[in-house]
Amino acid sequence: MLLIPCPWCGPRDEAEFHYGGQAHVPYPEDPAALTDEEWARYLFFRDNPKGPFAERWSHAAGCRRWFNAVRDTATNEVLTVYRPGEDRPATTERRRVADGPLGVTSAPRPVTSQAGAARPDSEEGAPPGPKRGAVGAALGAAEGAESLPAGTGTGAGGAEFSGGSAAGQPFRHPTRGRIRRDQPLTFTFDGIEYQGYRGDTLASALLANGVIRAGTSIKLGRPRGIFSAGVEEPNALVQIEAPFPEPMLPATTVELYEGLVATSLPGQGRLAAEPDPARYDAVHAHCDLLVVGAGPAGLAAAAAAASSGARVIVADDRPEPGGSLLGTGELLDWVAETGQKLAAAPEVRVLRRTTVFGHYDDNHLLAVERRTNHLGAQAPEHVSRERVWRIRARHVVLATGAHERSLAFADNDRPGVMLAASARAHVNRHGVLPGRHAVVFTTNDSAYAAAVDLAEAGVEIAAIVDTRSEPGRWADRARAAGIEVLPGHSVIGTEGGERLTAVTVAPYGESAPRREFAVDLLLVSGGWNPVAHLFSQAGGKLRYDDTLGSFVPGTCRQAVEAAGGANGTLDLAGALAEGAAAGARAIEAAGYTAAELRLPDVTAVPPSPPMHVFLVPGEAGAPRFVDLQRDVTVDDLARATRAGLRSVEHTKRYTTAGTANDQGKTSGVLSSGIVAELLGVDISALGTTTFRPPYTPVSFAALAGRDRGRLLDPVRVTALHQWHVDHGALFENVGQWKRPWYYPQGGEDMDAAVLRECRAAREGVAFMDASTLGKIEVQGPDAGVFLDRLYTNMMSTLKVGMIRYGVMCRPDGMVFDDGTVIRLAPDRFLATTTTGNAAAVLDWMEEWLQTEWPELRVHCTSVTEQWATVALVGPRSREVLAELAPTLAVDNDSFPFMAWRDTTVAGIEARVCRISFSGELAYEINVSPWEAPALWEALYEAGRPHGITPYGTETMHVLRAEKGYPIVGQDTDGTVTPQDLGMSWVVSKKKPDFVGKRSFARADTVRPDRKHLVGLLPEDPGTLLPEGTHLVTDSVLPAPPVPMLGHVTSSYRSAALGRTFALALVKGGRDRVGERLYAPVGDRMVPVTVAGPVLYDPEGARRDG
Amino acid sequence: MADAVPPVPRRSPLAHMADRLACVGRDTGGALEVAEVPMLAQISVRLDPKGAAADAVGLVLGLRLPVEPDTAVHAGNLTALWLGPDEWLVLGPPGSRQDLESRIREAGGDEFVSVVDVSAQRTTLLVAGPRARDLLAHGCSLDLHPLAFPAGRCAQTTLARAQVVLVAPDGPGAGFRVLVRSSFAGYLTDWLLDASTEWRA
Fold first, then answer.
1. Do residues A453 and A372 share a domain?
2. Which of B5, B105, B114, B117 should we substitute to test contact with A (largest number of A Cβ atoms within 10 Å)?
3. Which of A233, A464, A997, B156 stands the most exposed, by the fewest C-beta atoms within 10 Å?
């Protein structure tokens, strides 16, 4: 959502504005002097540059002023704004909006230098607390390492395991994790009941029960297991069945609750068949600093800003802050302490379970907060289940961390293959061992910390297989912990069905000598991808970091910077420092002073550089998966490159790699790396595919929020609405208005009701609520001149007390709107518009006044709802009016057609207009809407002896169509001139110019074969033509293309004519009166006769009663 | 005038929802109060703020028409809201519209001044209580923090899907005034009632 600075009101959301096209295209001084070509150039030709472009905008939902803006069409940045009549300022500099209370800057800020940012992982593997002695000793002390039985993958044999772990949860560690062991939960997966704890995810609870298989792959039907511990999960997408069905949720992000029922999926879920009973909503929020992610960098950024008084929002997608620290078990005291500090700061808001999923223009970010999902059936009904946060931030710190990526080795998809840091997170967050016996396969240091941690927790680490020939200091530590390290080796194959059973290892790049390990877990680390999705969405450019072997944030025109893992800074001390600095910079730019922040001490093992590996040679014929969710393999990518595709955007579309629900979080960079290798180019030259919102899937329900059902769109009603409801009206939507359509009585169908209502209006008296017509007061000494320029006919000659019908056209000569204009005083007019065009006509008037004719002394004010209008129609209407308005002379001479009078009707101040949209004697009575119900009741009472009948829009349409009165928008479609409608009489010949006049002399508008509005009489008087029916000349359809003569615009049954009839736009229609044409309706050719448009009372004899 | 005519009954746009609005305070334990303030006098005034009429109109109203965008001036029982660089909405107590309109028109004299009674064009909702700002934030993209939208500010903007004129609380404990087109008032009230459900005690 762009923020557009109104020159008066300051920056407001783009949605408040209305676009007015290219600026500085003035209305020609003398259109009549222009050639057709010059005029067409003015009408139809506009510039379309890439880059700065001056355009007109109106602050339509605000101060209604038109102004000019220079917008960069490539970036959408609004570079400057200025008032009409002012010259376009130079825009070499980007705009800088003052940092006033309402101001939010979009000024660019330099992003911190990336130098030295890309450091390989070197985080300390040890949890806080007493320093361990030899890791080996700790490992030896870990209980149950040998006695815990192996899982089967499906957990089917779970009951046979005991091994000292929690009852029924054989893979539960007795002490580790942040789960609430005092709150056991029962859940069901694939029909089997299990136990877990509050604090588990569905994935961790399944792992605790020995279930790792959580799905079946979509194309190949291969068993797939839990692969990660977070949003990047490509495999374990499950269907939640109860309490409310929801498809395709990553089991790694679903918090466990009592009674959860889920099933595994064959790669695709099912939408719920019943409506979602939950509430959803949205909220707008504003802040000086938004920190996305509450890991080490994010918490440090927030802590640096917290006590400054700046308004800070911290959003994190997990139930508790800590980010990667929860997974590694480090600095948890600092996390808790910082969390408390943030909670206590008055202007800091911490949003948990909140995923920031979109980063848009002018630092507008959307986030979804999952508020009650984790409560299951206990979720309170009155609290919204999910909430969309629409956050406008002056500065954004992206501390979104990094995702570990996998490697493309043979059979790398078996259940039991898991990202190394994710396995560690399952142990430390949830106290769950993802397996018993593991091989670790890595290209970098980070997996060593995981291996050591898992070993300590009781997982037997059979070997660490490192592609690097010199793994460095971490290898020494692992060996000291009793773990075998195989440098310069790789995994060349795996075995297993429901669960991994064996891993085959060989020297890197070779197939022998081989070693086979019988393990149920293979931990993989192919390096780290900074989560740069939001940075990229914000318009930031990514750059390849050669040390890290991945893409990191580069520069961005928005006030955003990345810190920590998201910036490629994977070491803990570096991430903390970077976060704190970014937070301080952001609030200082917003005018606050950052407090001195003491960051916790972190000791690190000296790092060794990672090796950049994507493709791992393996056994021939075994698939090497790149995108697990889409079942895309290295062979698929090779097919794409062999087919000549040279861009990752193209290989993505060709193979579907990266297009699944997970949007390639674990596979994207891997795909790029492999395609680069296949093409023999450098990955830095190839880049990544584009990141687009949303970062993770967001439910439509959340996006819809409160705007559904009754609140989907505003329902506008008149002051008389309740009466219509009480009297059984059916309603028609006209724009956002509810208008009575017809009032069926005693089981009448629509036809019967409308015929009855029409008869009452033609033979007795009827009344309708016409309050929805737009009404605009036009005041000022130049009001007459102004209206003369906008209407096709002359308005300035109208006498006070009188009314004139008028038509407005666009400059191209096409009908835009019509209505009556009444002159209240020499300098006051009241113009009415069609119901649907009220706002557009007012905008239109303001645009001309403010941008083209600022010299005219005219003000326009909407009074649509200041007046309620009742149309009183029919030969007996005069009697009814006379009874209620005793002081009003109602005879035809005193109160002629197209006159208006101020009077009282039923004791109510009223303005009565003698106008008719039916051809009958008729009045429109305008009163205050506060008194409209009283007026309506009085008319109903006074009219009762005359059989007064309420009628709706359908009857109104029939009555006017019988008289050939067009309805703008129904009988016109933006390609119809007044002349086409047979209304040349409404186009002034005297006025030197008015909007549209020049176009009436264009060759196109004087063509004899233009479509004219005519009447149509079906030969069979009972046949009703569907509106929209085409018209042709012959009774037999020729071979296509069939020449079309036109189409039916309105079609009704007429009580007055005793037959059906229609209005139609027909080529050269006025010259065809009397001709027979054919209307193909289904497989019938309905013969019709062309008639003039006025079918009832063509002499106008009934108008005066 | 004729003999004593019984007064014509009047109905405000939200009269039929008064009972439901009255429940909000009770249901939310006082976190929110929402009520219609019906039939205020509302006069649209258009004039050149630099011309003589601005002073003359200010004089009869006993206040200075605000020239800073999006600000409101209160004086006695009158309020003038800035709606545009040459446009104000003058609010007065119920029953004062004719008097107010004619006084302003007279003060305008022969100057180019437009005065239109728009009392029924919009109705007014009072949204008060400790959660008023949070409630409005569900549907209003403006920053309503007291630092950004303090007493004395007003704004034409969008609340939910309706255009409104929003007037900041006069002081601590006072509510926001939301002026909404009468035809949208029912929709907006439905929306406010739905949004207030969140704070049901």
1. no
2. B114
3. A997
